[in-house]
Amino acid sequence: MEEDRLGKAIKALVIGGSAGSLQVLFSLLPLLKENLQVAIILVLHRRNSVDSSLHELLATKAFAPTHEVEDKDIIKSGHIYLAPADYHLLIEKSHSFALDYSEKINFSRPSIDVTFESAAEAYGASLAAMLLSGANEDGTRGLAAVKQNGGITIVQNPETAQMPYMPHYALTHTDIDHVFDIPQMARFINNLN
Amino acid sequence: MIEDEDIELLLNDLLDIYGYDFTSYSKASLKRRIIRLYSLDKFPSFAEFRYRVKTDEGYLKRFVEEITVNVTEMFRDPSFYKSVREEILPVLGTKPFIRVWHAGCSTGEEVFSMAILLKEANLLKKSLLYATDLNPSVLEKVRKGIFPLQQMKQYSESYIASGGVNDFSQYYTANYGQAKFDRELSEKIIISTHNLVSDSSFNEFDLIFCRNVLIYFEKDLQDRVLKLFDASLGSLGYLALGTKETLKFSVIQHNFKQLNREKIWKKIV
């Protein structure tokens, strides 16, 4: 069963993180191979446009090309995308990005739930979603939507998370396929095709 | 579970019955907002929701208000306003008369921000700011010029970050938790409904603001609206978009040159 799930074609991986998640990405991104077979979409809670250079910082850690999303950008395999500060990031069925400046959800914009839910609809079973460290409930509803649409759900092992609340909340409130530490995340992502 | 076909039927109703055309709005965002309203108002079925929209004009008003995004703020992206202040206003100041269009202005916070910039550059007297939106109820708020007092602290900070040197509170009168902006600003604002999807150009402008509106449109509609802006700008006029919006997919991009890192383009033909 597990083997079947891992064997199916995943086209996109959405990663959501809040407090304590940047450190995870700084460790994880250098472990990822250059020619990734999926698109990776990062949704991080962060302060408004002040840290607009975050994507440049992340780009220095990753081998794959890393961009901050602009409206209507097409999602390409092998690329890493970062949700811009202070916008919700949605995904169209045509596998392009759409931005939305509507009300905050879970006190957050971007909200992880918003991106996970729209990615779940756009990618169905070819989506994997991973929720990292955080002190918020954002992401759990999104993971439920991913699962409902046949995708793979993953959380960071709360014991390894600087802020365990967010992955722990997901783990106790929805159906999670894998609980990973950072090396396991890297192995999983590098093996996706 | 609401299917895309349900949404399509609803959008067709809105177009056929009321002439509101949402069919070229970005689907992911629009669907999310429709589902949000549908669950907020606790309809037992989507068919009943659709029926209510079709038959109840009062509810239609609510529908349009809730489906369109009306989140805005004063001096959003202070560095953008700093650029308007330092790079655009000195150029516009050489003109005998200045016309500014805020397309999709929502509740008008950015219109008042611009009016303040014009006043501080001593240009307000020879300026007119046209504030348009498809939604009549948000325009009512622009007309009143009243915003929640609790937001003034943040607006004041953004104002200062945009290069403002005055005491921001001089521009409004505080009363009962509300800030009412000065008549001197609002009397230069001309308010009208205008739907970017279906209405045409109505004047020639020196500067058009359309920030965080195009993100809700699909590419084809974006292109149509950008052509409308192109046709509504005088030569050497300016077009200002939201921080994540771009001309790069549009046929009009060759008529424009991006000014700097901010999303401001100058018409070069």
Question: What keywords describe this structure?
Answer:
heterodimer; A: 193 residues; alpha/beta; Rossmann fold; two-stranded antiparallel sheet; 7 helices; 9 strands; 32% helix; 20% strand; B: 269 residues; 2 domains; seven-stranded mixed β-sheet; three-stranded antiparallel β-sheet; 10 helices; 10 strands; 19% strand; globular
CATH topology of the largest domain in chain B: Rossmann fold
Average residue-wise pLDDT of chain B: 96
The spatial strand order of the largest sheet of chain A comes to: 3-4-2-1-7-8-9
Order of helices and strands of chain B: HHHHHEHEHEHEEHEEHEEE
Rg of chain B, nearest Å: 19 Å
What CATH architecture of the largest domain in chain B would you give? 3-Layer(aba) Sandwich
Number of helices of chain A: 7
> What is the overall shape of chain A?
globular
Major β-sheet profile of chain B: 7 strands, mixed
N/C terminus separation of chain B:
50 Å
Question: What structural class should be given to the helix and strand makeup of chain B?
Answer: alpha/beta
Q: What is the N-to-C succession of helices and strands of chain A?
A: HEHEHEEEEHEHEHEH
**Share of β-strand residues of chain B:** 15-25%
**Secondary structure: helix percent of chain B:** 40-55%
Please tally the β strands of chain B and state the result.
Answer: 10
Q: How many strands, which pairing sense, and closed or not: the largest β-sheet of chain A? A: 7 strands, parallel
Fold topology:
The complex is a heterodimer of chains A (193) and B (269).
Chain A: H1 2-7, E1 12-17, H2 21-28, E2 39-44, H3 54-61, E3 66-68, E4 80-82, E5 88-91, E6 97-100, H4 112-123, E7 127-131, H5 140-148, E8 152-156, H6 165-173, E9 178-180, H7 182-190
Parallel strand pairs in A: 1-2, 1-7, 2-4, 3-4, 7-8, 8-9
Antiparallel strand pairs in A: 5-6
Chain B: H1 4-18, H2 27-40, H3 46-55, H4 57-67, H5 78-92, E1 98-103, H6 109-120, E2 127-133, H7 136-144, E3 146-148, H8 152-161, E4 172-175, E5 178-181, H9 183-186, E6 189-193, E7 205-210, H10 219-232, E8 233-241, E9 256-258, E10 264-267
Helix pairs in contact in B: 1-3, 3-4
